[in-house]
Each structure stands twice: as structure tokens, then as C-alpha cells.
Design goal:
single chain, 321 residues, mainly alpha, two-stranded antiparallel sheet, 13 helices, 83% helix
Length: 321
């Protein structure tokens, strides 16, 4: 997105930043409502399923905030190499967290349906937090390796140089970075893809063999894991977006700025809205607490307003009598 700032006029740049900031703010507000409901209801904090879900939502909020901030800083100021590396470190780490968290949620649903008697022993709260820590460690190590390679191959003066395009493919240009990036992406996506597919097929077999209430629960888990796969495909858009960008820019070179901006919205902004809509709204318990909590908030605010309006009237009547 950084190279587009050199070709956009002031009005066009302001319009793009306003749209991006508005969408990011609205999506983070929606995600924030689910996070607020989670921390206000203790029943969710004791369930590993909701712990993984809220981690996905918070991770998406961090990633969206960093993406929007990075775009605004690109248009507003000239960045140096050091702060660019720090922001890319956080942004790429959160980007890798999403598919790994989806894989963990798919495995949890598989255990709940296919191994219900062992679900309580296997899927504990402590293991859920340990899995989240492991996900952050796995996602953080390749990003930290990129910086270590820069320290080993480049002079220290590079960290004070100005960066035109704050994007990993443009900042990390050594052959080591390119080879590592390809290997990490292939391994990560292959592992997550196989995990989602295997758990989906296992749950599908159980759903067909189950009956009664078990069949309803199995079908619900089957639909949830299928939505995991849909969201995983959307997460993969961020990995294949450079190839899509190259194809579109080759066909329409004069629309480079608009093409890159549109792909940025569809690969980084809009997917962050899917987590609450797919899981929070579909989950009856979570959606019920969400409606109950915010409806109660509105009711109490209305009651306070009524009391404030009725109170002086009653006092005036008492004085008259």
C-alpha cells in the first residue's frame, strides 16, 4: 500500500484513508462488543471453546488496528527501517495466528463430537491457554528470524534509512528471506488445511451415524468446522494477494493504486469481521448473552432517564399539595 501514496492526489488519499479508518473503527467496535460480553460473563471464561474464540477476535482486532495504522502512517509520515520492522513483526505475527487458531478450534470441535467422553479431560482451560501461547511462539519465531537475518547481513545503518514500502516482500529482500517466507507459508497453510479437512471429514462421518440429539450436535459441529474452512480460505487471500495484484496490474497498469487499495480492503479489513459474525452470532449461548447484556444496558439507561424526568414532577406535586 505504501507505493500508492506516491501516485494518489491529496483528495484521493484522504478519501481512501477515511474509508479505511471508518471500516476499521466499525469492525473493531463490533468485535469489541463480543470481547466485552465475554469478559462480563464468567461462563465463557471457563470454556476452552470460547477462550480460543475470543483469542481469535482479539487477534483480529490487533491485526486490523496495525494494518490501518500502517496505512495512515504511510500517507502521513516517512517511516524509517526500525519502526517499520517492529510494526511488521506484530502485524505478520497476528496474521499467522489466525489460521493456527482456526486449526485449534477445529480440533476442539472434533474432540467434542468424536470423543465426547474424553473432552473434559483433554480440552481443559489450562491447555487452551497453553495452546494460545504455543501459537504466538510459532508465529513469532519466523518474524524474529527475519530481523536476525537483517542484523547478520546488513549494516546497522540500514535501521535509520527511510523505507518507501513497509511490506515484508519489499523490506526483506535477501535470498534467505525469500526462501524462508515460502517454506513457512507452505508448511503453515498445509498443516492448517489438512487439520481442518481431517476434522471436517471425521465429524461428517459422526454426523451421519448419529441419531436424535447427538445428530443435531454433530451437524452443528459439522457446520462450524465447514465455516472454519471458509474462513481459512479467506485468510489464505492475504498470502496469494501478491500474485493477484501482479496479474491485475499487468492487465490494468494505470489502475495500480485502486487495485492495491481494493485488495487491501478485501484481504485485510473485511475478513476481520467474519469471526464475530460466523461464531458469535451463530452460537446461541453467546448471542443470547450479547442481546441480554446490551438490551439490559439500554433498559437501565431508559429507566434512569424516566426517573430523572418524573422525579421533579412528583416533587412539584408534593409541594402543591
Amino acid at each position: 500500500m505504501n507505493s500508492t501514496s506516491l501516485r494518489d492526489s491529496v483528495n484521493v488519499a484522504f478519501t481512501k484513508l477515511f474509508i479505511t479508518f471508518s471500516l476499521g473503527f466499525v469492525i473493531n467496535c463490533i468485535n469489541g462488543a463480543f470481547v466485552y460480553t465475554y469478559f462480563k460473563s464468567q461462563v465463557f471464561q471457563l470454556d476452552p471453546r470460547y477462550v480460543l474464540y475470543i483469542h481469535l477476535v482479539i487477534n483480529d482486532m490487533i491485526m486490523l488496528t496495525l494494518s490501518v495504522a500502517l496505512q495512515i502512517m504511510t500517507y502521513a509520515i516517512s517511516m524509517t527501517f526500525a519502526p517499520c520492522c517492529i510494526m511488521m513483526l506484530l502485524s505478520v505475527t497476528t496474521n499467522k495466528n489466525s489460521p493456527l487458531t482456526l486449526a485449534g478450534m477445529a480440533v476442539e470441535r472434533y474432540i467434542a463430537v468424536c470423543r465426547p467422553l474424553h473432552h473434559v479431560q483433554i480440552c481443559t482451560l489450562q491447555r487452551a491457554y497453553a495452546l494460545i501461547a504455543l501459537i504466538w511462539l510459532i508465529s513469532f519465531m519466523p518474524c524474529l528470524t527475519d530481523i536476525i537475518v537483517v542484523l547478520a547481513t546488513e549494516p546497522l545503518s540500514v535501521f535509520s534509512s527511510t523505507v518507501v514500502t513497509c511490506y515484508p516482500n519489499y523490506v526483506y529482500t535477501t535470498p534467505y528471506h525469500k526462501a524462508q517466507s515460502v517454506v513457512v507459508q507452505v508448511l503453515l497453510l498445509s498443516f492448517v488445511f489438512l487439520t481442518v479437512i481431517i476434522t471436517y471429514l471425521k465429524v461428517l462421518c459422526v454426523a451421519r451415524a448419529a441419531s436424535g440429539s447427538n445428530q443435531a450436535a454433530a451437524r452443528n459441529a459439522h457446520n462450524t468446522i465447514m465455516l472454519h474452512g471458509v474462513q481459512l480460505l479467506i485468510c489464505m487471500l492475504s498470502y496469494i494477494s501478491p500474485f493477484i495484484t501482479l496479474i491485475l496490474i499487468t492487465g490494468w497498469p494505470h489502475e495500480k493504486s485502486n487495485i492495491m487499495y481494493t485488495l487491501f480492503l478485501f484481504t485485510n479489513v473485511f475478513p476481520r469481521l467474519l469471526s464475530p459474525l460466523i461464531y458469535g452470532v451463530r452460537d446461541q449461548k453467546f448471542s443470547r448473552h450479547l442481546r441480554l447484556h446490551f438490551s439490559c444496558k439500554r433498559c437501565t439507561s431508559v429507566e434512569k432517564r424516566v426517573k430523572l424526568r418524573v422525579g421533579p414532577r412528583r416533587r412539584s406535586k408534593q409541594v402543591l399539595h
